[in-house]
Amino acid sequence: MTDAPPPIREIRINPIVPTESVLVATARGMRPREAEERVARDTRNQVDTCPFCRGNEARTPPSLRTYPEVGPWDIRIVENLYPVLGDDRPQSNLAFGLQQVIDGYGRHEVVIDHPHHGISVHEMSPGHLAQLFRLVQTRMGELYAADPRLSYVLLFKNFGRAAGASIAHTHSQLIAMPVVPENLHNELHHSRAYFLRHSQCVFCSLIDEALTFEATIYDRQSGAVRRRIDVGQYLVERGERFVAIKPFASRFEWEVHILPLEHQADFLQTPSEALADFAAVLKRTMARLDWVIGGAQYNYFLHSQPRSNAFWDHATSFHWHLEICPRTSIPTGFELGSGLFVSTLSPEDAAARLRAVMLD
Length: 360
Ligand SMILES: [Zn+2]
Ligand SMILES: [Zn+2]
Ligand SMILES: [Zn+2]
Fold this sequence. Notes:
binds zinc ion
């Protein structure tokens, strides 16, 4: 290791959505933001009063999908008892976990990720995780096929109360909605603009950069080395077909994105066998995060090319990905007021600390 890098104080523009930016200010004495409360993890396997535990199936709506289809279930998808959207009753001006305001109809379902009540994602077997994402893929396809008015099916997971989870049992959610969420819409729009200028996918460019980038910044006067940027400095985890990278301009200090190495816009087009590698990369990434910021609350959500006709021509410019956003600090008034996120830890340091975790 070389000496600690000089403090950074710079505004970084999100390369995918240039209207978003983050102030990276690592100077000593920068007041750290207030920390989110860490959640004491409920590690019990079985809780008699929990509606999502095995044996309590009668306490949820009937299964829409289960894996396996016969015998004791490992994964179940059921209707959400308290939907933010229902296809029977249009509602307006709703806010849900990801701060989107949506209007209208849709479907809201719960994916019970695992029969064990308090298991963490990194503790699930790679085989189980692969099956989980295969089942989600199947269900998303069914939802899109069932109603052509639906523009997007969003998969997301909330872990911990600040991240919006109301039931402790490990679960994620599917929301089929008539609009494309705004943050995804921005990515679709800007990545298309990038493609029209550069004839390549901005996500593919970022992956190439994360895998090969190397630079040395010299002092203009003295010629001394001011900063040396290492190869693969944004890389967190690499599988055969997927990669986990720390975005260069991320909103959250420990935000990590997982993307297919080969260009693919639509998650639903990802072959079943590739999801095994996705699961392995997800498990290892979550294990690294758990080691460094264990107990932190987090959200993850899947961004994929929407199925609706309005987005058919985004296949070459968009690249599906899973965004993992741990909540380790509470946004300050400055951040909320300016829309400029502040990071007192540089993305380069965060990636290095995640890479340094020894996994077996
Ligand atoms: Zn439970
Ligand atoms: Zn791409
Ligand atoms: Zn995204």
